[in-house]
Amino acid sequence: MFNLANRVQVLLNQTLTAVSVLTAAIALISVVQLYFAGVWSIDTTSISNVKAIALLKNLRSFGALHGKPKENSKIAFDLSADLTPLFHWNTKQIFVYLTAEYEGKLAGLSSRVTYWDKIITRREDATLSLKNARAKYLVWDVEKSFRGRNATLRLEWSIQPYVGAFVLGETLVGEDFAFASVKRKS
Amino acid sequence: MDSLATSVAAIFEFPIDFAGQKKAHDLLSRCLSLGVLASIVAGIFTNSIHALVYTFAASLVITFVAVVPAWPAFKQNPQSFLPVKYDL
């Protein structure tokens, strides 16, 4: 600290330490705040009017391999959700996605597919209200068909913060539906 | 003959005494810790991370002004050298 250059150097060094402490504090405090804001127990979501459609696709880009057609699934749905609690001072944007979970090929294992998603960057846009919305993605299983199994739709979310780790979660509401089957000409 | 770098460094030396160095170091630590605390509080109460960043930047500027220049307060105890014992 004896001369000017040394004082500048010590100041910059200490600033670096202070910034890392600040960053860690923000990351920790914001997750605790989210917990007390109850973002992991949002139960006002409603998913309804689910209509499943099945299609048979022959293209490789729709999962058809070795010339065997693959059953693709899509849905139409109504969705209303209020995700404003997810927006707090450390939220940059949120990613919301609608997934269907169903029993897998082996007992005890489940598969999950994403039908629809959305990136929300503003608190004003965090109230979702969709009527007869169509799935953004066609999905298919590892097997050649979904075999008309039952699935549960859930709205999941992920917070991308300014500082800190991604925060993942889902709303507590699940809506059951059955995959449609392709009507084959016989 | 001094090189140019040495003479420039001599102009920007701005030395302070030993007691002043300790004072400056303590001041630096205190200012920065206060800055971190104040910016977290500002961020939480205004609900904005931008407020936090600006508060911290302001606290850095204040710390810089308080610590880096050779203020008279850092030169209150000049080091006294031993008297010369022998005539050359």
Describe this structure in words.
The complex is a heterodimer of chains A (186) and B (88). Chain A is α+β, with helices and mostly antiparallel strands. Chain A has one helix at residues 4-36, and strands spanning 46-57, 70-82, 91-103, 110-120, 127-134, 150-161, 167-178. Chain A has one domain (4-178). In chain A, the strands form two sheets. A four-stranded antiparallel beta sheet of chain A has the order 4-3-6-7, with no helix packed on it. In chain A, strands 1-2-5 form a three-stranded antiparallel beta sheet, with no helix packed on it. The model of chain A has no long low-confidence stretch (mean pLDDT 92). Chain B is mostly helical. Chain B has a domain at 17-74. Chain B has helices spanning 4-11, 18-46, 49-67. In chain B, α2 runs antiparallel to α3 (49-67). The two termini of chain B are 26 Å apart. The interface between A and B is medium-sized, with 23 and 33 residues.
For this entry, give a set of tags.
heterodimer, A: 186 residues, 4-stranded antiparallel sheet, 3-stranded antiparallel sheet, elongated, B: 88 residues, mainly alpha
Question: How are the strands ordered across the major sheet of chain A?
Answer: 4-3-6-7
Average of per-residue pLDDT values of chain B: 90
Sheet with most strands of chain B: none
Give, in order, the helices and strands of chain A: HEEEEEEE
Shape of chain B: elongated
Tell me the number of helical segments of chain A per DSSP (H or I, 4 or more residues long).
1
Question: How much strand of chain A?
Answer: 35-45%
User: How many structural domains can be distinguished in the coordinates of chain A?
Assistant: 1
Unreliable residue runs of chain B: none
Number of discrete helical segments of chain B: 3
Helix percent band of chain B: 55-70%
Termini Cα gap of chain B: 26 Å
- The secondary-structure class of chain A comes to alpha+beta
What structural class do you assign from the helix and strand content of chain B? mainly alpha
**Largest two-chain interface:** A-B, 23 and 33 residues
Largest sheet of chain A: 4 strands, antiparallel
Helix content of chain A: 10-25%
Number of strands of chain A: 7
Mean pLDDT over the residues of chain A: 92
Low-confidence stretches of chain A: none
Transmembrane segments (chain A): 20-42
InterPro entries (chain A): SPC3
Family (chain A): Belongs to the SPCS3 family.
Main location (chain A): endoplasmic reticulum
